[in-house]
Amino acid sequence: MTHTLTLRRPDDWHLHLRDGAMLRAVLPATAAHFARAIIMPNLVPPVVTASDARAYRDRILGALPENADFTPLMTLYLTENTDPEDVAAARAEGLIHAVKLYPAGATTNSASGVSNIDRVRPVLEKMAEIGLPLCVHGEVTDPDIDIFDREAVFIERVLDPIRRATPGLRVVMEHITTRDAVDYARAQDETLAATITTHHLVINRNHILAGGIRPHYYCLPVAKRETHRQALRAAATSGEARFFLGTDSAPHTDANKLQPCGCAGCFTAPNTLSILAQVFEEEDALNQLEAFISRNGPAFYGLPVNDDTVTLEKTGAHYAAHLDTDEGPVTIFDPGFPLDWAVRA
Ligand code: DOR
Ligand code: ZN
Question: What DSSP element (H or E) covers 202?
């Protein structure tokens, strides 16, 4: 008998869809499996105002395959010039579901991010007042801080002070990569949540650097040592409401990955569900998969769980190595092991 698993349809609480030809190429992979996704605003130029977000949402909807049932949940890119009233109006019309904080210079297209947190206090206070979550790329950019320590230092120097100064602000620690972040999240109240990517459950820093450099495993925050991966696996499979899936699926063409200064990002949208089913099965936690991919995220964002379902079958799954786009091939994340669970079409 085929082993099957039917779960509420999942959502992706952190996704890069890009724009133009790349958007058209990558969107079908997400829309095939996920009902909704929090859409990252780090385009060039970034999605800063409500009117930028409205236009981007319309481009996403226009790029959807026919008959697709997918809702993009828009976000605004926080800058030191963001107008709290524009944010509040975008929230009131139901357009945006979060604001994204990129420390200036932390990652891809983050140059317009925040250098001085004091300059965005009025926005953060307005967000706390209206219950709008702040999604945080949690890494300091100080060149004196080792890249493997940037998340832990951010928690201490930036995140915790922001939360203390703005009581009630709902915060998502995005794509956490360390035991420190897991421990911090667990010690907070229900205003704090954390997303975990698929790839950080699979790779540690050896996968990137040992036995040759593997640019397709390079992302930000960079994968850490094995003990941290184990802490992330324990958190993701715990069923605790504060942890949920944000894939951070971040497509870059191979040409942009494979160069002397290659781009950060793993493209996991096509095979994420198959990989996660395997990870949860390995952890003897398939019964917690639905909480992680389908239930905990909507609960934090104050949205209903999806009505429809997705079915996984243990028949073996095969994914192409690349997705072809008009900009060139994009490598699909290779988990490094054969996949047992296929998503029923
Ligand atoms: O690896 C990453 N890629 N991390 C980010 O924070 C941004 C993302 C991207 O946009 O490519
Ligand atoms: Zn991201």
Answer: helix 199-202
